[in-house]
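quick one: S-adenosylmethionine bound model?
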Amino acid sequence: MANSGLSNDLGGILALVDKTYGIDKVLADKGRDLVKEYYAQSGPAYERAHSKAGCMHLALNPDGEFSPEGYRRQPRSIVRELTEMGGTRVLELGCGKGFNSLIVARRLPEAECIGTDLLEDHLVKARSLAAEAGVSNLRYEQASFEPLPDRFRDMDMIFGVETLCYAQDLDKVAQSIAAALRPGGRFVMFDVHALEDPDSLPPDLARATRLYETSMVVTRGFIRAGAWEAALARAGLRPDPTRDLSKAVQPGLRRLQAVGLQALGDWKKRMAVKVMPPYMARNGISALLGPLVFRLPERNRQAVLAYQRISATKPA
Ligand SMILES: C[S@@+](CC[C@H](N)C(=O)[O-])C[C@H]1O[C@@H](n2cnc3c(N)ncnc32)[C@H](O)[C@@H]1O
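yep, here:
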């Protein structure tokens, strides 16, 4: 495989990205709202390279080996919390094709689960997967979290997995989440945040970080670490200490990188990428760069991204 030696060679990967996609062309999307185009084009690629079950988030593999079981760790942690608190009313923000809500609804048949997403196409797929699974305590409704509509009230738990990175007005979103929770209710999110300004990094790493976020259409950049906790506190919630899970996403990131290096292995494959829908093709960029842009204590010490679990309680 022509590219197999590149996995830790940031300069080599950036050269490959430039040759295949044109770095300046990709970065020219900075600040544009591309969520709808990105997901309309990327659906088939997600199902092929990521998860046939409709999961669109990173796997958590704390033992250091990739396993698709890792995709289930985020929803399982929601099931655990709901079980501990005896909650039954749960709402997912940005549920995509319903991977997490379906797990929660199956594990807790007595719960009433609602999945919401901006995009109707995702919900169509989510509804058909729920119907196939014969799950009746789960419904899907089109709704943006920006802000969450006020028809949602008295929730025991609201959660979001890799969706709130697209939020723009954190205070409005946090206030709408706080309003939808019952007193004593819980909020949990898993997402990528920037520990520092990526532009303060050495130039190659800064470009790699900007390419990573732009290729996932987080075109305003990842939200700074600490900003959600502050917005949630201003909205009257009590945040818990945030957990850094960057190490647990590395095996999944390495797997995606191997798929990306294989897919761009020779000039014929790179030509194929050039004729794909652009936002689908650019998933190759985040795959190639992912393992290098997250900060780890033992490696990537200068990198600024962190995969975090943030949670908060609405005081009773
Ligand atoms: C990376 S996917 C994650 C999907 C799902 N949470 C999962 O874990 O598989 C991000 C999702 O956020 C949704 N999204 C983006 N902006 C949104 C908004 N303002 N309100 C609700 N959903 C949004 C997208 O449509 C997409 O389904």
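The longest helix spans residues 246-263.
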